Amino acid sequence: MKKTFGPIKRKKYTEKKVRQYSENKQKATHKKVLPQCLLVDGYNIVFAWDELKEIAKTNIDGARDRLLDIMCNYQGYKGNTVIVVFDAYNVKKHAETVLKYHNIYVVYTKEAETADMYIAKTTHKLANKFQVTVATSDALEQLIIMGHGALRMSASNFKEEVDNVNKAISEQINKTSRLENYVLK
Questions:
Q1: pTM of the predicted model, to two decimals?
Q2: Name one Pfam family in it (predicted).
Q3: Taking Cα atoms as reference points, which of 85, 169, 79 lies closest to residue 135?
Q4: Are 83 and 51 in contact (CB under 8 A)?
Q5: 70-74: long-range contacts, CB 8 A cutoff, minimum separation 24
Q6: Mind listing the pLDDT tens digit of every residue in the chain (185 residues)?
Q7: List of long-range contacts for 63-68, beta carbons under 8 Å, 24+ apart
Q8: Which of 33, 40, 54, 77 is 20 to 30 A distant from 63 in Cα terms?
């Protein structure tokens, strides 16, 4: 039987070739696990969380302090580096200020610099030293930091994360206190 393009060629059985893998091939390298760093857009979170927004209506300093205390608990449980950034761009002749508040860092930006600008700059600087996560609901900021290789977390997702950490802390305290009561009896 012939086809238009000549006689039909039947394939003959052939043994499969055994592939040889050279020993000098490079093995897959695993990425180095970097320490975690969380950058928090302070006022963005204050005005996104109901509890803090309510405090801010009467006392912005109180809302800021409450956020810092929440972040101290969060850092104590998670063990990561936490940097909370507040805008000071409307304050005349204000230099950038970095403070250590208990176990976290607090940054007040310099005059004419927003928290978004500081976070973008810092994310770029820390990209090779840390696995950076940024907590903000600012959509433009999220796009910029993702370009620097950082992870993003919206204010609502961050609130859930903090609530879960607080729940875990409470459970740990209850578990420890029950154990102590049992031992003391």
A1: 0.79
A2: NYN_YacP
A3: 85
A4: no
A5: 70/162, 71/40, 71/104, 72/101, 72/102, 72/103, 72/104, 73/165, 73/166, 73/169, 74/38, 74/162, 74/165
A6: 555 667 777 767 666 666 666 665 565 566 678 999 999 999 999 999 999 999 999 999 999 999 999 999 999 999 999 999 999 867 888 899 999 999 999 999 998 899 999 999 999 999 999 999 999 999 888 888 888 889 999 999 999 999 999 999 999 988 887 766 555 55
A7: 67/40, 67/42, 68/101, 68/104, 68/106
A8: 77
Cα separation of 180 and 175, whole Å? 9
Max Cα distance, the chain (Å):
97
Residues β-bridged to residue 84: 40, 106
Three-state DSSP at 31 gives coil
Give every CB contact of residue 166 below 8 A, 6+ residues apart in sequence.
Answer: 73
SS3 41: strand
Q: What are phi and psi of 166, to 5 degrees?
A: -60, -40
Query: Domains in the chain, start-ordered, CATH in brackets?
Result: 36-184 (3.40.50)
Q: For residue 135, is it left (φ>0), alpha (ψ between -120 and 50) or beta?
A: beta
Calculated CA dihedral for residues 176, 70, 157, 126, nearest 10 degrees? -110
